[in-house]
Amino acid sequence: MSRPAFPLFFSALIMAALIGVWPEHAVIADEKIGILESFDSNYFGEWRIDGKTYVLEEGANIPVAGPSPPVGAESPVAGHLVRIKYDVRDGIRYVTWMQLLGVGPESVQDGPYLIWKDADTATMITVVDGEVIRTEHDELSDGDELPTPSRTVPVIKVDPATVAPSASWPDAARILAVSDLEGNRGTFLAFLRGNGVVNEAGEWTWGDGHLVLNGDIVDRGDQVTELLWLIRRLERDAELAGGRVHYVLGNHESMVMAGDLRYIHPKYRFSTDRIGASYDELHGPNSELGRWLRNHNSVIRVGPFLFVHAGYSPELDRLGLELDEVNRMIRVGLGPPAWPAAAKADLRNGLIWHQQGPHWYRGYFPRHAEDWGGRPSEEAIASILNRHGARHIVVGHTVVDEVGWIDGRPELIGIDVAWRDPSEASGLLYEQGGLYRVDAMGRKTPLDPGYSPTSGE
């Protein structure tokens, strides 16, 4: 018997995953990620995953979707992780979607998560080499440092941060802004080191500089939890040195907190299944990370810049809201449910989910403008800037070829670039009145050689 063309079949699936996207309103079927125990020698047939049988029908057209880029493998290996979606017909589970992850459970590291039981008692949950470790802590106070089993995050500090940060820092003279890190902790650290923001140990060395993270720090990547703890620590360290780290919330932060988990990396589906809690629960209002996330702003002014993850729409401007009011309205609405009908229908009551809201608006970009209410006029942009005392609006959310002007308009700057490795990383630097594009080596390129910090040209 000739060997079935399995590697070609699954190579095609993995390639589809690498270039594909998951539609924003896709319906998620029953899903499983677990350890592959056995599979039919002809590949099509019965697969045993975590003690249950799933059937892969011969000739089935199995699409691949999900977080991109996924890890993947061309051939199944017993003992490795596999992720599937399936339908149940006549009591039999038929596979409709498959992703071979190419790693065993021992590769999964996650956490720590600190889940509060009451005001001074909490459970720490950490996944180390695929095993869940729980430790109980009581009589906790603000500022307590807790050792963890994690090799990446060995210590965390308890800090409920109940006072919302200011949304306006007009006197900031040195600013570095990046966006859409998507769990790429290693690349982010390399970028910070290359630009003198942290030392080799990851400690803040940028003095009174302001580092802005313009949303979508979570989802897609596989070191989201570790990245969040790093940012949280840098916030404290920067403030002690006279600087600041500003974490602006984006649509993926609001999605995670609301339970829309379409874009989480496969490892989190495995770890949360083993932990016995959903991913949004681990970032809920009773978790240390969840409390911290809910305390952040969605629109801020730092120096001459208005930072907003997706965009500040003319419709939002017409509501006449000040920054603190926009941020307060978003903070109180963070959490489930995702995509509430009333919120999507009315901007004032749906700032988190409405198309014209700061987490979603794409109208600055010519290729999207028609679907987002049309290209905003020069007068509309000027009104937004004048309202908040800024000279530029800086956005992520929509991928750009390089950090720079949007649609040829210096008032609008896009900074969403890839962060999979340091060669792709890039940010916006403002110092001594000049605007620069900087890479992970700290190399500076003027955003526009003809730009004048005083003329606004």
List the SSEs and their pairings.
Layout (H helix, E strand, L loop, with lengths): L5 H14 L10 E10 L5 E5 L2 E5 L24 E9 L2 E9 L9 E9 L2 E8 L2 E7 L7 E3 L7 E3 L10 E2 L4 E5 L6 H10 L15 E4 L10 H17 L3 E4 L3 H8 L7 H10 L3 H4 L5 H7 L4 E4 L2 E4 L5 H5 L4 H11 L7 H5 L32 H11 L3 E8 L4 E3 L2 E8 L9 E6 L2 E6 L4 E3 L11
Structure, described:
By secondary structure, the chain is an alpha+beta fold. The protein has 3 domains: 99 residues, Copper binding periplasmic protein CusF (OB fold (Dihydrolipoamide Acetyltransferase, E2P), Beta Barrel), CATH 2.40.50; 50 residues, no CATH class; 279 residues, Metallo-dependent phosphatases (Purple Acid Phosphatase, chain A, domain 2, 4-Layer Sandwich), CATH 3.60.21.10. The chain is 22% helix and 27% strand. The chain has 11 helices and 22 strands. It has a 6-stranded mixed sheet with strand order 11-15-16-17-19-18. Strand 20 and strand 21 form a beta hairpin. The chain is globular and about 65 Å long.
